[in-house]
Write a structure and sequence with these properties.
This protein has about 230 residues and is of the alpha+beta class. The protein has helices at about 1-20, 25-40, 45-55, 60, 65-70, 75-100, 105-120, 155-165, 185-200; strands at about 125-130, 135-145, 170-175, 205-210, 215-220. It has two domains: about 1-90, DNA polymerase, domain 1, CATH 1.10.150; about 105-220, Cytidine Deaminase, domain 2 (3-Layer(aba) Sandwich), CATH 3.40.140.
Length: about 230
């Protein structure tokens, strides 16, 4: 009986691998195939469906908080590390693309990076993307980590960092864990202040992106701030 089970699992996973090569896997099957490499001696079909149900979809599983993955029945530390490693590799891939070409050549790369970066975060974070003269990424700097509804912004530190990197253009990023995808009045004031300070030293604030509830909202498109003119 044990040999029959083993043969079934081996055959089932081989069928999953072939479906992957044929681009025919569902999200649950993709997760099952992934977990099969870290939990090779156990049927993980049920676990895969339970994880999808708990976190909403495959993206929700990959971006879930590490502690929540570890605590999920049937997972454990090694499996959680494996999933978070996959997510980190995705982020690294987006960053690599933004470093190789001007980020606006493929805006989806930036937006996908933002959604994956902030997914599952329970406190506000404020990031700064420093770009060179060709609008390629120099650095993603985590400026501050705050509380569930606020994060501090220190314009002088941002200006100093931009000058140290010889950055010519900036994109600001922050999230709202509450899923409220609307810029606050404080957001607007801070954005305009930074735009003015940066302009004074020849650096452009290209945009400020707010990530909330699976949405990326652009301050530039919403006319939250004005670009200073000479």
């Amino acid at each position: 009986m044990a040999n029959q089970d083993s043969d079934f699992h081996a055959g089932h996973r081989e069928r999953l691998r072939q479906k992957f090569l044929d681009d025919k896997l569902s999200d649950a099957e993709k997760l099952e195939l992934m977990l099969g490499y870290i939990i090779p001696r156990r049927d993980v079909r049920v676990l895969s469906h339970q994880l999808i149900s708990e976190f909403g979809n495959l993206s929700g599983v990959l971006t879930a908080q590490f502690d929540k993955l570890v605590a999920f029945k049937g997972m454990g530390r090694n499996s959680a590390i494996f999933i978070k490693l996959i997510n980190q590799l995705m982020l690294d891939g987006y960053k690599f693309q933004m470093k190789q070409q001007p980020f606006f050549h493929n805006p989806d790369v930036l937006y996908n990076y933002c959604l994956n970066l902030f997914a599952g975060k329970t406190v506000e974070e404020f990031h700064v993307l420093f770009l060179d003269g060709d609008s390629r990424l120099l650095e993603d700097w985590t400026h501050t980590c705050g509380t569930v509804n606020t994060s501090e912004v220190y314009p002088r530190e941002i200006v100093q960092r931009a000058m140290a990197l010889n950055s010519r253009r900036l994109v600001l990023l922050h999230n709202h864990p509450s899923a409220q995808a609307v810029f606050s009045q404080d957001d607007a004031i801070t954005t305009q202040r930074l735009a003015n300070l940066l302009h004074a030293i020849g650096i452009e604030l290209f945009d400020h992106l707010l990530i909330a509830g699976g949405i990326v909202n652009s301050a530039k498109s919403a006319h939250i701030f004005n670009t200073p003119h000479n």
